Amino acid sequence: MDEYTARADILGCKVDLLNMDEVVALVQHMVEKREPRHIITLNAEIACIAQDNSQLREIINRADLVTPDGIGIVWAGNKLGYSLSERVTGIDLLYNLCRQGAVQGWGIYLLGAEPGVAEKAAARLSEQYPGLKICGTHHGYFAEEEIDAILEDIRQAAPDILFVALGAPRQEFFIQRYKESLQVPVCIGVGGSLDVVAGIKKRAPQWAIRLNIEWLYRLLSEPSRWKRQLVLPRFVWRVLRQRSS
Ligand code: UDP
Questions:
Q1: DSSP state letters, 106-148
Q2: What is the rounded distance in angstroms from the CA atom of residue 39 to the CA atom of residue 76?
Q3: Is 80 exceeded by the pLDDT of residue 3?
Q4: Ligand 1 center from residue 112 Cα (angstroms)
Q5: What is the tens place of the pLDDT at every residue in 91-129?
Q6: How far is the CA of 81 from the centre of ligand 1 (A)?
Q7: Is 169 in the pocket of ligand 1 (CB under 6 A)?
Q8: pLDDT tops 90 at residue 5
Q9: Which residue has the CA at smallest separation from atom 3 of ligand 1?
Q10: Is the C-beta atom of 166 inside 6 A of ligand 1?
Q11: Which residues pair with residue 65 across a beta bridge?
Q12: CA-CA distances (angstroms) from residue 85 to 17, 184, 187, 211?
């Protein structure tokens, strides 16, 4: 959405220079306009993968809004001379949009996570944000031949916002592929957020988030992620190389 914002270029991925309040205001605008929009919450891991994967990079650069999900992206943006004030993470965005949705009477659909998790997340969100409409939920472990039925369920539910929690970058490919046929005003990839909303997984404590070491908390609480985080030194190196080029 070129008319909207200034952008950073981080390893060939665009990132919009917006804070949380500005993103929520933009989403309000998107919901009112009712054209299918794609929002990506970008972290260092995905930016690094995208540098080597032109298809993913193109999806990111064609998305309507890309927010700095990880502290690595905020760090890189500032290192490269842009002004990025704060992280706009998938989970914080989800909560903020549910709060706004409760006031505006928006409907949301939750797609993703293990069977039962999206329903649990939905129950928690409607308890926490009375006025928010939960239009539907579906787990994220479906076969290719089930996709048509899921798309039809989402179309029938006609939400204002579709949260897709299939993990990155699968959720980005999913949204890009189906957003036109879904005609949902706002589709957002939110990674593992439904697990946290449902209470299956714990988010890092506030002090760790404030100290910008949420990634470390995640690494310690889910050691199996270490392989994925090996990409981070490469990300730092590539950003420094971009800065000096
Ligand atoms: N997931 C899914 N379908 C799949 C694979 C994963 O719905 O085929 C879900 C998984 O249950 C989890 C989320 O996608 O809820 C991925 O979480 P992760 O923390 O790995 O995502 P990230 O935030 O790192 O992208």
A1: -EEEEEESSTTHHHHHHHHHHHHSTT-EEEEEE-S---GGGHH
A2: 20
A3: no
A4: 7
A5: 999 999 999 999 999 999 999 999 999 999 999 999 999
A6: 33
A7: no
A8: no
A9: 140
A10: yes
A11: 39
A12: 8, 29, 24, 14
Residue 168 Cβ contacting ligand 1 at under 6 Å: yes
* CB 114 less than 6 A from any atom of ligand 1: yes
Task: Give the count of domains, the chain.
Answer: 1
Q: Are 188 and 112 in contact (CB under 8 A)?
A: no
The reply to whether 46 falls in a domain is yes
49-61: per-residue pLDDT in tens? 999 999 999 999 9
Q: Across the chain, which distance is largest between two alpha carbons, in Å?
A: 51
Position 238 in a domain: no
Using 50, 70 and 90 to split pLDDT, how confident is the model at 4?
low
Residue 181 lies in a domain: yes
**pTM for the full predicted model:** 0.95
For ligand 1, whether the C-beta of 167 sits within 6 Å is yes
The token duo for 210 is: 């404030």
Structural domain for 34, as ranges: 18-197
- Ligand 1 atom index nearest CA of 190: 23
CA distance to 40, 59, 150, per residue, from 56 (Å): 11, 5, 23
Give domain status of residue 125, yes or no.
yes
> Ligand 1, from 119, 166, 200, 201: best to mutate by most atoms within 8 Å of Cβ?
166
Residue whose Cα lies nearest atom 17 of ligand 1: it is 192
CATH number of residue 92's parent domain: 3.40.50
Cα-Cα-Cα-Cα dihedral sign, residues 127, 212, 167, 9: positive
